[in-house]
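Sequence in, structure out. Go.
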Amino acid sequence: MHIIDIAIIVGYLVFTILIGFLISKRASKNLDSYFLGGRTLPWYLLGLSNASGQFDISGTMMMVAWMFVYGMKSLWIPWLWPVWNQIFLMIFLAVWLRRSNVLTGAEWLKTRFGEGRGATLSHISVVVFALVAVIGFIAYAFEGIGKFATTFLPWDLSLDMGSLAISSENMYALLIMGITTLYVIKGGMYSVVITEVLQFLIMTVASITIGVIVIKMISPEQVNAVIPDGWKSLWFGWKLELDWSSLRPEVLSKIKTDGYELFGAFMMMAIFRGILVSIAGPVPGYDMQRVLATRSPKEAALMSGTVSLVLYFPRYLMITGLALIGLVFFNADELMTGKGLDFEKILPYALNNFIPVGLLGLVLAGLIAAFMSTFAANVNSGPAYIVNDIYKRFINPEASQKKLVHLSYWASFAVVVTGIIFGFFISSINDVFIWITGALFGGYAVSNVLKWVWWRFNGYGFFWGMVSGLAASLILPKAMPDASFLTTFPIIFSISTLGSFLGCFLTKPEDDDILIRFYKNVRPWGFWKPVYKKLIEIDPGFKRNTAFGRDMLNSLVGIIWQMSLTIMPVALVIREYGMMWAFVGVFVITSVILKFNWFDKLED
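Output:
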């Protein structure tokens, strides 16, 4: 790299550390300040922060590889996450969740199940799940940033001390993670949000820059010469039907490894699972933390809507641009590793060879910022469960705020170290993505849907659903290493469902006063008729939530709205202007519907 590019990156890293130290005093007042910013931050800043946290470098490398291989059809693959859980949050779930006024997802369970033994067990199960998920995300980030950094940064940092040997890739990951951990520990949520807003602005400029460069550099004819039929089409049949055999036969093995050959079956499973996971609500991590940090339920909904509005257009300009560089200027030697061809290296290859001096430094600072924002968000969210939900609740309920904040520093450090240790054993970003989305979240869905919509579901049902799902998600990938997501998800889902219902029906319901208080405060729709009847005897003026139909319609419209935001930038970069303008129209129409049928009806 040129000295100008290095100077831009170093300057950015120094600035972010300074921010953490400058505002550390404000963050260290109490746990609310440290983990939720004192619930004083505006919704639009939290929305930009949340969008920044989801613009991660590991995911971007993986999505560039998907775009290279699957073209426009790759826009469906993130439904596996599902990306549209933000839509369900925006439409109704963020409002429900924020009304609880708690610090963490585990603490929220007290509002639903009370404080009996079942509630305590459910509380513990969420804490365990949250920590496993956060550690998994840190390991996922560790693999991505190391692979990225070694392509650009000029120094060989490998360490070989006989029994201790650390590759240059892992040393870079340790260094960048260490810098990020420093400012997160010092500044808490304030530091994370302020730096993430800065990071998002840098990433947006970097993404637009790449999109413009590629549009000027690569013609539609060059693209058409290196892609198979159907690459530019969104639509699919039961099978993927992208024939790479005459163009890039090496791509066929990746398609087989990814498990997306039966694309129709994959999409059926992704949609079924996506609806369940979305209604279940956010996993206990940084996404939930942003919801709980807002100033009101209405602002929680607006914050969640901001994520989709600002994230996808710039991100897909970058993803599509880098994928086209990889396609047109394909160089197998640049993508080779000790384990063969690695399509996740297309992103660093494209940047390293085709982005000019100065702009490269800006783009790299943006991508390092993307990594740091995602990593920082997880580092700030995970320790809250250790400090608030284990130490404060079970060990030292009378601990001072100062002591709890200091303990949060050590908890953050411990979570990072544990995630890094697991990161050393990961060989593919996609493997971790599939495990988190397919296995781990599969065990999470059933219990967390039922807790919202069914009055009879109790703390024991939640605990056994979560524990059986978590155990299955950890054991099955080892017991069935060659099985695809399409095989393991139904098994994990069935085990978690069985655990949920057995745990529920073999124990008594929660007390009426707990259920009535929860139902009156949160006001969910669903199967709450027995509780509603008891509540109106106490409060005849209570109005139940009858917005199920409107919420589902708005969620469907919102998914189409969000999808249009991903299609427009891709169509722009590949010069499919007819498609682009068609989806501009879709975006405008869905925006108008959401304005009148969602935004105008928002209430606290």
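Check: The chain has 26 helices and four strands. The CA atoms of residues 90 and 301 lie 4 Å apart.
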